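User: Could you walk me through two proteins back to back? I'd like the raw sequence and the structure tokens for each, with a short line separating them so I can tell where one ends and the next begins.

Assistant: Of course. Protein one, sequence then structure:
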Amino acid sequence: MKNPVYEFLKDLDELKWFWTYAMRPLKQNEVFFISTSARNKRLDGEERAFFQVGRSEMWHKEIITEDDFSRFLRGVRRCEANKLAYLTQNGMPYPAGVLVLYVNIAPADAYAALFAQMDHLLAAQRELADSLLKNSPEGIRQAFHAIRHSHTTGQSVFARSFSDGEWLDIDSDIEHFETAGGRAALRNIRDFLCEETGRGNYMQIQTTGGFHWLIRQSTLAGIGRKYKTDPAGIIVSRMNAECKAAGITINEIIKNKNRMIPLPGTVQYGRHVVTVLNKEDFSEDKKLHAWPDYREYQEE
């Protein structure tokens, strides 16, 4: 095996920039959540049959409990595990072409996650007790399976326990935008967002499938008052109109409810480094953290 570990981080400065301008500081009840996923959308039929990768498989989760860049970076590094630690259904290491490292743009509410996990454990306990009373071997087997895997459920509830986030995410899954018309449409979208939210209040993040547009939540009320309707709907409608007029292929443009985006600075599907395109819009007063001066050992 030429490279024995999964690789995600490709641009440390990009990650530092995203930490500085996009990741708001944690409150005492909050944590950061990142996860690795395998998605077969970039594989052809023969590759899917060979590797046996599902449509979307979350295979590792990291919860970062401290508001510290060095701890966040270590969480990213823990995702870069030995390839033999995580295998496909046919026992093969995941190919680079399916890998994504996601970050939740809203911190997770650890207090809410605590109660969600307690509910899950009580449900497993009830299932075991009911199965014992009914003398149901299959029910007992399923209950103990849930109990044995309760640690993974404990991590998963963090992914669903959102706290108040800094950003709204609009996921634009589009193709064929690298034309004169396409570039003009994207400029129009940026001009619209700048006019409606103000400079430095949105991020254009390029991924392999198009763009994630992060819109600062504090600007949405003004858009809603101006247009007297849902601000996310206004933004989605404008993006659809601009892309359609430019002949861009639109797979979907939607408000992203799961609040997960590919983490800037990491490589997506083995070939694209996720990047924020409009860094120049962000002045010093837009910082959410101080710029990290942390250096990894291997950089020395």
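----
Protein two, same layout:
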Amino acid sequence: MAIRATIVLIKSEFVATLSDGSQVKRSDFRLMAEALVLAGVRADDIEYDWKPGQRMITAGQQVGLRSEMVAIQRKYWGVSAAA
């Protein structure tokens, strides 16, 4: 079963809640991408959330995070996000 992640931006920190109940926090989207891939999350298994009082994750940050995850997946697993 795939591990999914819901990501929010609180202050200047990315916070991902994983479907297994764990949570990952990183200040940089590249560090978050690596942490998510190593936790078993694929680039196509992430979604973004926003609530009043939180910062929105910009479209550029979303694209950057997914792209970085795809590159890391290829490095570690030798596969693309869709595989």
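The mean pLDDT is 90.

Let me know if you want the two compared in more detail.
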